[in-house]
Amino acid sequence: MRLTNTLCAQHIGWHFKKHWLVQGRRVPKETGAVAELLKLGVQVKNPEDLLNTKVERKLVDIVGTREKAVSEDSSHPDWHPTVCHSYSDHSVLIGGLPQAQVLTNSIEIQSFPKQIEDAIASQQLPNTVDKSVRHAILASHVLDAEQVKLPKVRLPERPAFNLPRSYGISHERVNRLLVNKLLHESEKLAGRSVSVRRKLIDNASFKSSLNKDGDLLGFSINAEKVVFANRAIEAVKGKFEGDLPDLYPMKSTISIPKYHIYQTENLYPLRTDISCSHPHTIFTVFNKNLVKNSHGSEVTTAQLQARTLVKAFVVAAARAKQLHGDSVEGALPKPIVVQSVQTDGRTFHFGVLQLNTLDLGANSTTKNYWFHKQNYDLFSECTYEGGRTHLDNYNGDVFRIFNAFYNNS
Amino acid sequence: MSTRWYPIYQRGNPQLRVFLPNFWMKLIRPTEEQPPNVVTFSVSMEMTKYDVRSYLEKIYKLPVVDVRTRIALGETKKDQTYGYITKKDDVKLAYVTLPREESFVFPDFFSEKAEKQAQEEKSLDESKAGFRRFLDRNKKRPGTPGWFSI
Amino acid sequence: MLKFNRVSQLRTTYKRCLAGQSQLQLNPTDAEPAYPEIQDTSFKARKQKDAANWHEEIRQVPTVEEKMIKINIPRYYGFKVVDFNDSKIPYNALPLTQHYTRTVLEDLPSKSAKTQDPEQKEQPSEDALFTAARGDVIDALEFAHDYYKHLEKQPNSAEHSPVERERILTQIIVEQLNRALLQSLSEEYKHLDEVEVDYNPRHEAFWAVGGVDPPKNVQKSKKGREWQKEMANESVDRLVQYTGAPYLALRHRKQLSPWKTEAESENHELSKQLPRFKHDPRTLGYSTKHQHATNVPGYWPRGNEHNFGLLSFQSRAHLQLRPKSYGEQDMLEALHSLAIKSSYAWLLAQANYNGFNTYNELTYPMNTQTVITNGREWSFYEYQLNTLLLHGNNVDGNPRVNFCRGTKPLPLYAEISASGKCVDFNDNALRHLLNFYANVPSIQRSIGEQQPYVASNVSGYENAEQRDFISKTFKYLASNRPRHLELPEIYLWEKLYKIDNNNRAMEAKRRFFELDINPWQRTLDTHDKEYVPRALRPDVPKNKNRFKKTYYP
């Protein structure tokens, strides 16, 4: 039947509903039976308790297909009440090099140590080396046959455009090949006498944690390639003076993410008692798709250079703690020198860190030394276009510095 | 193991029943040529590779090297009267690899029967042909009896 | 007047023809007239001739890239290939591998017997070199294990499967050992200064194999046609695509010298004895897939002069996944077949960059050395590639065979003790490895001899548009990226109600399978040409040059 007003007028469903509501709220009449029973000493129980007894449910511990995720709150085994500024591979120091200097208590010296400068000036390389290096660049940038999907490309002026995805060599692989090939060239030039005293490893991770003016700093970094030597690099001769930059109103820990879940262990990839365990040079890769400012703007040169410094610092600090125990503080008995190179495949930033002290406080008297120069471009463009390879503005100086770094001891 | 529930006994049901296990394997003739050490089975859908392997190893003591399974789509058929489509169940096939020195030949149970049938058909064909010859011979002389000839 | 002219013209033509004929036919010096060869016009012969013509066309194509494009032209969505990769070896794979690569397997002769006679004098320096290398290698091994222990301690290392863990450890060991050996040997062996090291390069190769039984659908379709019934069981070529990534590969600009002579390689008896695997490779456990034919020895063509492989280190980590029931003997055979197929594929890819391919025969032998290792166990193989022709009737007709010789897996050390020291170092295994490094590549051919079928290279082309087109198409094929428009799909309901059962006879037939279009048969060059915007062609009329040219060979 059609749902008409006439029909609805006849419908008594509403009355039934109301009736049920009333009946549901009915209160049983007090008959006095309870009082009478109590008088006779009979225990009276609430029927609710008997009819709807509460059953305690036990949680069954099921062995699942995978381990249960540990919740990231105070129940986490690594949870600490004090907060830690955790610097990782993807962190960017927004203040750039000055912030990194304050953070690591290092003064900046805008040249390389004298022994490296001398080596760069005096080294004699055969004429064929530039040809080999050019070949190494081409082999890693365009001639390798890997074809994987590359990250999305966006046009800044047309952000909604979906360009066809390009395939090619991944950024990681380009850098891995380039560093490997350049090291291979250096080792060929140096000969067995030098190269036998070096060992190379890939993707080594370093961890260290330090206190700075009451703030806990945790560092956990990964170096794409590390050269170890059988003897530590000699400390740089001479004394260097300088002041730390003033960051006011910024604090030195700004833009380092804070976490309550962390580990404060110290990690250095090798034992102390094997022959080649001294850190010599670390090579780190800068990938602009992974390392970003939190507000999305491009990483600046100063921020990039800060990254080189911090990475070197972490390696040196981890080594110092491994050598002298976790409790070491203040000036080190023997300074630790670590060379650090950062590259994105095209631009190279070289630096040398001499770690004199692990005391990062503002009123520490000794300072660490950070020797570096501006960035160098290995080339301006390296492409494979129209069936021909192009390598424009190749800069031979980069390999000379690279080679001097490798041979430094 | 049987995943099938035993039916609840009702008065009047037979007292004793035998239930077949859910796990069964049927040896089938491979459709394509295979190496001699590969045997094809049609198995119950619940069986995994590991079930097939332990079934053969534990019950029949066969040296199983490898088992591969796949599920074949069942055939569809059009109903002759009403035109709707019916589909047979999907089948799980197991290809069991034996050690390379073993060889398995699918038994030919029905070769004799086929032979006999072929013979019967042959004699039937012969008599048919004889009759046709007879017809041909008498085609051009209608009305004459069959025994009449020169 | 006009008429007369026409007649006189005709007459002169006629006379000229007569004169010509007399010259052709009545030349007294020719005893017999030269007739063109009588051609076999049977279906089979025509097919064979077409194939031969196509192979000849490929041979005539001037550049390596264009040859590869030419081979790929028949299929827009890729060929149906047997997936022959370096990470899956089914049970009893050796006969199939030998058939598919036409390889005779031998034992590696022990080097001690071979080297003693000619190099007696060099023994002291060899020994000094050996002890130096031994020290370096032990050092490198201990260092690698020490570093690996550190990696194990990392929190995410527990997620790795045993196969991944073996890969990580072996990668470290192989890189360390390679570096140590290059250092310690390069003073004595100058060729090691010139080698190019590839880290996890991409090795791919494509080839066609004959002598395999046809698949069921081919048989069925042939049996359905009266005139093809007899050919239903004739073998059909299978296309094979190898994909692999060794830990490390060394290349050099010169070739290794062959260890089998021409006469030994061309042996009909030997080729007859080769194992044949006539069944479908899927019956063994190989799978098939659709992809473009790619030949990649780790770099792009004309990339550099280091065109010949010296040594490659292959992984055996995936062998862990094989069930125990396969047995020891099959494990050994799996190693052999891994060595055979990886060496063959790498050499084929190198040969491809020199202008040869599975349809155009090699003109000189090529050699390589292969090491299969998990860090502790090392097996050593040498391979000589003599022939590439495996397709069609070559399985019976080709007298040439390829050779592989190798060792059993030899342990390089027994274990690494808890204190990080190497226990029970095996000098024999190291000697094998040293011999591979010390094997000096000595053969250098002239460009004409090395690449007889390559007439030019793409970078030499004048036309920039053509260069661009060829290199882009080549990379597109080699990357095996999915096509812009995917293959049209047959929905399940369509299969049930339209293909298998004709239930919708009255519906308009618009889908590709109703119009008899097989999308797999689409050729590479059947696509719309790229439009050139008008702004880019200002000087021509607007309906001219609207589309970019294509330069398919």
Automatic annotation (TrEMBL), chain A:
Keywords: Mitochondrion, Ribonucleoprotein, Ribosomal protein, Transit peptide. It is found in: Mitochondrion. It holds the Pfam family PDCD9. The keyword Kinase does not apply. GO terms for molecular function: structural constituent of ribosome. Its main location: mitochondrion. InterPro entries: mtLSU_mL37, Ribosomal_mL37/mL65. GO terms for biological process: translation. Belongs to the mitochondrion-specific ribosomal protein mL37 family. This is Large ribosomal subunit protein mL37.
UniProtKB/TrEMBL annotation, chain B:
One of its GO terms (biological process) is mitochondrial translation. Its main location: mitochondrion. GO terms for cellular component: mitochondrial large ribosomal subunit. It is found in: Mitochondrion. Keywords: Mitochondrion, Ribonucleoprotein, Ribosomal protein. InterPro entries: Nucleotide-bd_a/b_plait_sf, Ribosomal_uL23-like, Ribosomal_uL23/eL15/eS24_sf. It holds the Pfam family Ribosomal_L23. The keyword Ribonucleoprotein applies. GO terms for molecular function: structural constituent of ribosome. Component of the mitochondrial ribosome large subunit (39S) which comprises a 16S rRNA and about 50 distinct proteins. Belongs to the universal ribosomal protein uL23 family. This is Large ribosomal subunit protein uL23m. It comes from Drosophila yakuba.
From TrEMBL, chain C:
The keyword Mitochondrion applies. GO terms for cellular component: mitochondrial large ribosomal subunit. Keywords: Mitochondrion, Ribonucleoprotein, Ribosomal protein. InterPro entries: Ribosomal_mL37/mL65 (IPR010793), Ribosomal_mL65 (IPR039982). Its main location: mitochondrion. One of its GO terms (molecular function) is structural constituent of ribosome. Pfam families: PDCD9. This is 28S ribosomal protein S30, mitochondrial. It comes from Drosophila yakuba (Fruit fly). Transmembrane segments: none annotated. GO terms for biological process: translation. It is found in: Mitochondrion.
